[in-house]
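Changelog-linked ticket: 2-oxoglutaric acid example.
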Amino acid sequence: MYGASDPTAAERTAFRCAEKQYKLYKPLNLKGRSRSRSKLSGGEGGGADLSAVVDFHVLLAADGELPAGIGRHDCVGFDRPVFCFLDRPGFYFIPGALSTEEQCCWIRESLKTFPQPPNRTNLTAIYGSISDLLIAAKNKKVLVEAENPDIQERNEQNNCGGKTKSKYFKFVDSESQKGEEHRSTAATTLMRKLRWSTLGLQFDWSKRNYDVSLPHNKIPDALAGLAKKMAIPAMPSGEEFKPEAAIVNYYGPSDMLGGHVDDMEADWTKPIVSISLGCKCIFLLGGKTRDEVPTAMFLRSGDIVLMAGEARERFHGVPRIFAESDQQEISALISQLSSGDDDFILDYIKNSRININIRQVY
Ligand SMILES: O=C(O)CCC(=O)C(=O)O
Ligand SMILES: [Fe+2]
């Protein structure tokens, strides 16, 4: 799914040039996380020229003639404006599809419930199942390694012999760790290291496929309902979208997602329903090879993108998040979250972006 087989050839492609053009460059001593399923390397950079980036919110507000190559997609039974690119069938952009309240709700769910077992996250491979990460972060807990009494007992009963070395990780008060030799990791740090979680059918990144044998819950009803409703403009007529899996991506200020194609679902006539939350980003929509020059567009909190049919074969990625400097972009979100008691979530989202993309697998 992700990355090109020949990295040197990938370096020279039009898609790669666009990624380099838009990526955020930072001082070398602030080396950021590479979230990439295909990495971007550094460069000199600075303020990128954003004049070619399509801004659907400006087009929506102008309510006039659209630039060449962009159209409106009229869809029976769908009451919101939907934009499309005339030469890129199957790609749809629904600006401001979610209200501020809805955005807050999905941000909370993304941080609180979506990373809960049996859903897996990038942290699962290191620490096993971790429950209540957000609560632990709010309560300033730390994660420590401990012996798992359950497994020890079970092994003894099964005559596995001797003491098992089975370990697991648990949250404890940071105070209790003072003077302890155990290595501990603050829950707030882990929260920042959260890069993805998978809902519904679990995606196995190492096998690059869905592993239906892994325990999973179905997609929460409210999210499934939203995805079904928003998928309508991209659905073959008379059919209903079946949300079976979702990937939640968590982006910090210097994170990016390298160009890739999502090709692990059986029926490409069904869309990927992709929800943006938090800080603004640049999204690149390329061609069927990396050699085609991609179109850059802004994605803002509450926007929804649909990719179906031919658009499923197109390379796409996120080279840039706009955090900190562009707080006015998410001012409604900030004021809504400020009125609650969610300081942690407020601080998190001020310099993060969350993307929930929902898929029909079969
Ligand atoms: O973050 C986004 O908007 C895109 C995410 C994506 O393409 C993916 O997870 O496959
Ligand atoms: Fe994707």
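Closing comment: Example verified and attached. The longest strand covers residues 141-147. The radius of gyration is 22 Å.
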